[in-house]
Amino acid sequence: MHNQNRAEYKARMADPAVAAKLAGKASQWTALTRELASRRCAAGTATAAAAASSPPEVPPSEAAVSTLKMIEKLLTVNPDPAHLWNHRRELLLLPSADAPSASASADASESSTSNAGAVVITNFALDDELKLTAACLQRNPKAYAAWFHRKWAVRHWFLTSAPDAAATSEEQRSALLQTELGLCASFLDRDERNFHCWNYRRYVVALMLEVSLLGNDGENGVRLDGSWKSVGDTIVMGPQLAIDIDDDKSKGHLAPETVEEVIRSEFEYTSQRIEKNFSNCSAFHYRSKLIDLVLEADLREAGISRNEEGEAYQIRLDMARGELEMVQSAVFTEPDDQTAWWYHRFVLAWARPKSLEHWTDQDSAAEAMESFAEVLEEEKESIRELMDAEDMSFEDAFSFASKQRPVIFPNMGFQR
Questions:
Q1: For residue 382, what are the contacts with CB-CB under 8 A and spacing of at least 6?
Q2: Are 340 and 326 in contact (CB under 8 A)?
Q3: What's the pLDDT band for 203 if we cut at 50, 70, 90?
């Protein structure tokens, strides 16, 4: 985790009393993991025997509850081992040993529907998994396996929960996703550059974008894999879970107005995080993925199509100017931080007009080139002001930049 004092940590680990306590915990850990491995092996043998019987029988899961508690104990101590989470998921999907009737199962546990349509009561309960993963992430906010399990749990609930009414279904889903966004905000308050949390936030937002496509039966081809495929023709962000769904059978794209509110809210959220810390690379990266979607929303709001090349480019350039203004605040505050400079380079590349042969209106192309040249001139002057503020001559700045990035060579216009 960022901002930890490494020297203090090393000194604490060197303390004999601390070392002895950790050794005792390690012995307990080893004994419990061996017991779990034995139980998992025995369960696999029993399942294979049941599958070979005629007719096949599902092995009873009386030991599942105690095993789940043992796994929970281990994970709250160390949430990193992926095999423990895998074992937990296996047990969660087993039929519950003391399952109530299907009509009374809503308050006790979640239900899943088999291909034949029969309701199977399992050991899975969303609240338990959310509480466990939250506790584990409090201990280690960057535990890959804990974040993955939380994604799995939310997705499994989305696909298997079956509330009585459609309105209740959407309300429950929306409430869950808002809770998850709140959890992300809480963890980002602790460490605003926790890319695991940013990644999970993007996953939650992807679910928010797809929730309106999800029917009450879950059988509709919605991916729910964290990709943003439903927002346009291009996958803006790739999947976070491996889901076996035929793209030809998946749902179509969301209506633009459905997407816009979420996208603008996320763009504003990155602004708030960047204002708190200009070195927040994760926020800048997220912003670089959102910016095209925000541009599309601005074009729709202005009633301008992509075919209106000149007008569309001016809106892009105006947006770029706003981004560059934010970047200038960052670089003048922390000129040695690479994050803002990376985004500065990204925005200029994003704002650059397409080459002449790709324009249908050459007059609009010439105007766009001239406008972009003005932006470059403005940025040149801004950098010149920064050099003056840092009391750097051109030779000093060129020498510094060359050491950081040897391929850099300013054009003659800048050197003059």
A1: 328
A2: no
A3: very high
Residues 331-381 pLDDT 10s: 999 888 889 999 999 999 999 998 878 888 888 999 999 999 999 999 989
Give the pLDDT confidence score for residue 321 in this predicted structure: 96
Q: What is the pLDDT of residues 313-341, one digit of tens each?
A: 999 999 999 999 999 999 999 888 889 99
Q: How far apart are CA 239 and CA 236, in angstroms?
A: 10
Q: Are 227 and 238 in contact (CB under 8 A)?
A: yes
CA dihedral 59, 65, 71, 74 (to 10 degrees): -150
Instruction: Say how far apart CA 280 and CA 185 lie, in whole Å.
Output: 14
CB 236 within 8 A of CB 273: no
Rounded CA separation 403/379 (Å): 22
**Alpha-helical regions (H) of 141-237:** 144-160, 166-190, 195-210
Q: Are 310 and 361 in contact (CB under 8 A)?
A: yes
> Residue 26 is inside which H or E element, if any?
helix 16-52
User: Residue 120 pLDDT more than 90?
Assistant: no
No. of H helices and E strands in the chain? Answer: 15, 2
Using pLDDT thresholds of 50, 70 and 90, give the confidence band for residue 282: very high
The position carrying tokens 């779990």 is 36
CA pair distance 403, 416, nearest whole angstrom: 21
pLDDT in tens, 232-268: 555 567 777 776 655 544 555 566 677 788 899 999 9
| Bond from prior residue into 353 cis (ω within 30 degrees of 0) | no
AA identity, residue 389: A
**What contacts 415, CB < 8 A, 6 or more positions away?**
394
403 is written with which tokens?
Answer: 């050491």
Q: At what angle do helices 16-52 and 6-14 cross, to 10 degrees?
A: 90
Show the tokens assigned to 317. Answer: 């350039």
15: helix, coil or strand? coil
What is the spatial distance between Cα 216 and Cα 357, in angstroms, rounded to a whole number? Answer: 50
